[in-house]
Specification:
The complex is a heterodimer of chains A (512) and B (99). Chain A has 512 residues and is mainly α. Helix content of chain A is 71%, strand content 3%. The mean pLDDT of chain A is 92. With 99 residues, chain B is mostly helical. Chain B has a single domain, classed as Helix Hairpins, CATH 1.10.287.3510. In chain B, helix 1 runs antiparallel to helix 2 and helix 2 runs antiparallel to helix 3. Chain B is elongated. Chain B starts with a helix and ends in a 13-residue tail after the last helix. The model of chain B has no long low-confidence stretch (mean pLDDT 90). Classes of the chains: A mainly alpha (512), B mainly alpha (99).
Chain lengths: 512, 99
């Protein structure tokens, strides 16, 4: 048997344009780190970061009406993927604005001047005194963003795994780079890394089992193989469970959520703001594509699993948030509960369920990012004041900040006239059919519990005496713009739900 | 020997690795156990590739190796940083963040 002729794969580079732009920009950022002097570095990095994010956003918008499987089946360019990409890029721009803030902390930005310096050492004090800043965060951030926008587009298990790692690896590092409370930050990075690597290994083994069962890696072909040959279904199911565990870890669904409160608390708040939204949106995009395209024939097998995880997430998220004293941990547990709501919508395996989950992802991302952005503004002399007792009386001290945070908490609780209500209504009504109605009832009951701890924070902000050593920093235009964009989107999607519903309707269904 | 045996071996290696992550308390050893899990997956991929007579699995295994190498860089950086500030790599001592 002679050697077979090699045929070049056909790759539609236009489909990959947003990912490529960010990847090239990140590589450029690495070169800037190596060759540009300290004085110019920050400005150049900011230029490259914001420039590439805006160009990538423009490319993503031009693909708004595509509906095709491209790159030899490796990528799916369809409405849901492009909608999630656009959302992720806007959130990345907001996140970059927060990371660029230098006015909130008197010592500079939110990142350690040199992560290699031992906390509390003379080196660290000297670097801080000289006003040096860490600029390696920008290329790392761009690598993470390029992985995140590849994630919802991935149409085979290999691309999905690479996207997962491209998103995760830079985030492990960024989590450990906080300027204040460095030991907490390093510990968060260690926990995130060990548990994240464990979850990716499970994902990889699951992908190997699915490949062993079906002989295919692209999701459409896996679905065909599952429908034709039922003798390997058990192997396929074990693989699917392992892959789902890996992805559920990324979205922070209970019982795979253990990392999220610790990481959200320890990470620099700007990074928490970005990752709380981005990892959820990107990974849920992949979960939905896997379930709706690759495992569509096994719907009766995975639905009970997803329903169980959804109920556990909502129960654990809502009840654990009740007893937290740290505001970042409250928001982390609330994000666990929100993962449960999104999965409730996914249980309706039809276009309405997909639309519900997409609506939830698009609206929730902005609320969560803005909430963490506000958290970064309330400070004591030692750094951020994250203890809820320190937030008492904020309504008198800084009425605007308290009002914005109240609005965001109401959006998280899902009150009408905020985007949270729109999302909850669309998501839960799509699953209100047949036995999944039971999960919807659990969702409604746990939202009532969740409303209690949001209201507790609001009551404490307005009806308790103020603390003396707490101040609200007046941030620069960057943070104001970031919070303004998120609050604006939350308001518009709340007052005019048809705006987000029209976007989701245009997005349509997954290509298969 | 039937390829199914190799699949069983890879499952055994995965379980050993997972047990290592869950039981051991030294961050470096936990990390080595994760690498064992990744290599178990590689063995499963290559075996499945042989079973089906397609190359996809072997290509996937190469990608997995590159990712594992990148993960080593990131992981060791984090562990070394922790070790330098606390003089220990035990997971039990990293307990500032809880509940």
């Amino acid at each position: 048997m002679g050697p077979q002729p090699f045929t070049m794969p056909h790759i539609e580079y236009s489909a990959l344009a947003p990912v490529f732009v960010l990847f090239v920009a990140a590589t450029l950022g690495v070169l800037i780190e190596a060759f540009v002097g300290r004085t110019l570095r920050r400005q150049l990095q900011l230029l490259v970061t914001f420039g590439s994010l805006i160009i990538a956003l423009a490319f993503a918008i031009t693909q708004w009406s595509s509906h095709a499987v491209v790159a030899e089946g490796a990528l799916a360019l369809d409405g849901p993927a492009v909608l999630l990409q656009i959302t992720l890029l806007v959130i990345a721009i907001v996140g970059a604005l927060l990371m660029a803030e230098t006015k909130a902390d008197p010592a500079g930005d939110a990142f350690a001047p040199r992560t290699s310096a031992i906390p509390g050492s003379d080196d660290e004090r000297e670097f801080t005194m000289r006003g040096w800043t860490q600029t390696e965060i920008w290329p790392l951030f761009l690598f993470a963003v390029s992985g995140s926008i590849l994630f919802p587009m991935a149409n085979d298990l290999l691309t999905m795994f690479i996207a997962l790692e491209m998103l995760s690896l830079p985030l492990y590092l960024l989590v450990g780079m906080s300027r204040r409370r460095r030991l907490l930050s390093q510990e968060a990075a260690l926990k995130y890394f060990v548990l994240g690597a464990f979850a990716s290994a499970l994902f990889l083994f699951g992908a190997a089992l699915i490949y062993a069962a079906s002989g295919e890696l692209t999701l459409g072909a896996i679905a065909n193989a599952a429908n034709q040959d039922s003798s390997t279904t058990s192997l396929m199911l074990i693989g699917a469970v392992l892959v789902l565990v890996g992805l559920f870890f990324k979205v922070g669904a209970a019982p795979f959520h253990q990392w999220s409160p610790d990481v959200y608390q320890g990470a620099p708040t700007a990074i928490t703001a970005y990752m709380s939204a981005a990892t959820k949106i990107a990974a849920f995009g992949a979960v939905m594509r896997l379930l709706y395209v690759g495992l569509q024939g096994l719907q009766w097998d995975w639905q009970p699993v997803v329903a169980t995880v959804a109920v556990i997430s909502m129960l654990v998220g809502s009840s654990a948030a009740l007893v937290q004293t740290n505001i970042k941990r409250v928001l982390a547990y609330s994000s666990v509960a929100h993962a449960g709501f999104i999965m409730t919508a996914m249980l309706a395996v039809n276009p309405r369920g997909l639309a519900g989950a997409l609506t939830y992802l698009v609206t929730y991302g902005f609320v969560s990012t803005a909430a963490f952005a506000v958290v970064s503004l309330v400070r004591s002399p030692a750094g951020e004041a994250n203890d809820i007792s320190q937030w008492a009386g904020l309504g008198r001290k800084s009425p605007v900040t308290a009002a914005v945070f109240t609005f965001l908490l109401l959006a998280l609780a899902g009150l009408p006239l905020t985007s949270g209500f729109t999302a909850k209504f669309v998501a839960l009504s799509s699953a209100w059919n047949g036995w999944t109605g039971g999960v919807v009832i659990a969702a409604v009951l746990t939202s009532a519990v969740a409303a209690f701890f949001y209201l507790r924070i609001i009551v404490s902000m307005y009806f308790s005496p103020a603390k003396d050593d707490i101040s609200v920093t007046v941030p620069s235009t960057l943070t104001r713009l970031a919070i303004g964009v998120c609050v604006g989107i939350t308001t518009v999607f709340g007052f005019a739900p048809q705006a987000v519903l029209a976007l989701v309707e245009h997005a349509g269904v997954f290509v298969s | 020997m039937s390829p199914a045996h190799y699949l069983a071996l890879s499952a055994l290696l995965l379980c050993l690795g997972a047990a290592g992550v869950l039981i051991r308390r030294n961050a470096i050893v936990m990390f080595m156990s994760v690498e064992l899990m990744l290599n178990a997956a590689n063995l499963a991929l290559v075996t499945a590739s042989r079973m089906h007579g397609t190359l996809d699995g072997q290509v996937f295994a190469f990608f997995a190796m590159v990712v594992a190498a990148a993960e080593v860089v990131v992981g060791l950086a984090i562990i070394v940083q922790i070790f330098r500030s606390r003089r220990t790599a035990s997971i039990d001592d990293a307990s500032l963040l809880k509940y």
